[in-house]
Amino acid sequence: MRTLKPTALLIDHDDSFTHNVRMWLSARFDVEIIHHSKIFEINFNEKKYNLIVFSPGPRSAQDYPHCLKFLSQISDSQHVLGICLGMQMMSIVAGGSVETYSAPLHGKTSALESTSSEINGLNVARYHSMYCILPADNFFVIATSDQKSMWVKHVSKKWMGFQFHPESFMTEKPDLYLDAVCQWIAE
Questions:
Q1: DSSP character for 20?
Q2: What is the distance, to the nearest Å, from the Cα of residue 179 to the centroid of all Cα atoms in its chain?
Q3: DSSP structure string for 141-183
Q4: Single pTM value for the model
Q5: For the segment 4-38, what is each residue's pLDDT rounded down to a tens digit?
Q6: Domains and CATH numbers, the chain
Q7: Would you state the torsion angle of the CA atoms of residues 42, 31, 92, 103, taken in this order, to the nearest 10 degrees?
Q8: Of 53, 56, 139, 49, which Cα lies nearest the Cα of 94?
Q9: Each residue of 85-109: pLDDT tens digit?
Q10: What's the burial of 51, exposed, middle or buried (CB within 10 Å: 0-12/13-18/19+)?
């Protein structure tokens, strides 16, 4: 008998990485992609998603005001994952800010710094020119790099964010991050 996979809604912010994220997620989720311009067409009464993913994308989070509004209206009990731009959107909606990162890290790797021995020192792929200044009372920081938040969880909402790209071939042990997402959803 076939076991049903949990469902994930992946919001595409006009970024080619969206397809890599879909492939990464599809190992554990049935993935539905929707363009960011159509997010208010979703009827959450008809379909329940185990995870909503805000994809990477070009420009800054402020360039997607409809996505910021959508994120702010999602139930606190809904699991939401933000990757790169998606994490920056979380920062803004939670009352933080996003600043220019100098110099931009596009296609570079850096090591995570964490109290978790499982991830400390692992190299992750970074493709960003912005970084989050998170409200400290709203987020628990799991890992940093260059003293910037790289992996966070919201303290009261079901939000998780990666500033790096867990789906990239340059990220060491990408399944480790997918396992973490699945375990978080199961909690």
A1: H
A2: 14
A3: EEEEETTEEEEEEESSSSEEEESSBTTSTTSS-HHHHHHHHHH
A4: 0.94
A5: 899 999 999 998 889 999 999 999 999 999 999 99
A6: 7-186 (3.40.50.880)
A7: -140
A8: 139
A9: 999 999 999 999 999 887 777 778 9
A10: buried
User: Tokens representing 2?
Assistant: 């076939």
Cβ-contact 161, 152 below 8 angstroms: yes
Per the CB < 8 A criterion, the answer to whether 114 and 142 are in contact is yes
Give the torsion sign (CA, 82, 37, 27, 165): negative
Between β-strands 80-83 and 159-162, what pairing exists: parallel, antiparallel or unpaired? Answer: parallel
Yes or no: say if 51 and 187 are a contact pair by the CB < 8 Å rule. Answer: no
b/e 129-166 (16+ beta carbons within 10 angstroms → b): ebbbebeeebbebbbbbeebbbbbebeebbbbbbbbbb
* Amino acid sitting at position 59: R
Q: In the numeric block, which tokens belong to residue 152? A: 């966070």
Q: At what angle do helices 174-186 and 17-25 cross, to 10 degrees?
A: 60
Lookup result for tokens 């998170």? 134
